[in-house]
Design a protein that fits this description.
Elements lengths: L12 H17 L9 E13 L2 E11 L6 E12 L2 E8 L3 E3 L4 E11 H8 L7 E12 L8 E11 H6 L6
Antiparallel strand pairs: 1-2, 2-6, 3-4, 3-5, 3-7, 4-6, 7-8
Length: 171
């Protein structure tokens, strides 16, 4: 190739992509703020449908964004444990935009077998509280420098008396 050959000045596809990534890194480095994973917690759970050997629950998960930019979520998956035992699992394709320093709830239908329900609620009469753990991945829309999946893991307790009376949800 000659020095003034226009073919020599064209970057290849991978070189152009690398240049774009470096420009984005330089732009985000200027903010000085590290990205924080959103907090996901159990907001509510209710029986949706029960038939045969399976029960469907509607779980509301609260996603809290501690960052100064919005989060564009295209879905999430989760596993729910009750009293340390696997209880239910589910996935949602609900698209939600969580504003900077804000929160939104995402409905997720989770499914549980009769066996998992019995294991999770075994010994309930001797307990005053149920412990729960919800873990999974938030699926992000877009791309760029934002990770495409963000793991979460949250746990807490709920009073059986207050839950039965409908006065209070998980803490």
């Amino acid at each position: 190739l000659a020095v003034n050959d226009p073919m020599r000045l064209r970057p290849t596809g991978s070189a152009a992509a690398a240049m774009l990534v470096m420009l984005k890194l330089a732009a985000s480095a200027g903010s000085g703020e590290p990205f924080e994973t959103p907090r996901v917690s159990l907001s509510n759970i209710q029986v949706q449908e029960s038939k045969g050997l399976e029960t469907a629950f509607l779980v509301l998960l609260r996603v809290t964004n501690p960052n100064d930019g919005q989060l564009d979520i295209k879905g999430l998956d989760c596993d729910l444990e009750i009293n340390g035992k696997p209880f239910a699992y589910g996935i949602s394709n609900t698209q939600v935009t969580v504003p900077a320093f804000g929160s939104e709830t995402i409905p997720v239908t989770v499914y549980s077998s009769v066996l998992d329900i019995v294991k999770g609620l075994f010994g309930l009469q001797q307990r005053e509280e149920l412990s729960y753990r919800v873990k999974g991945k938030v699926r992000m829309a877009g791309g760029g420098l934002m990770p495409s999946t963000l793991p979460f893991n949250s746990q807490g307790t709920v009073s059986i008396k207050e839950l039965a009376s409908g006065r209070r949800g998980p803490s």
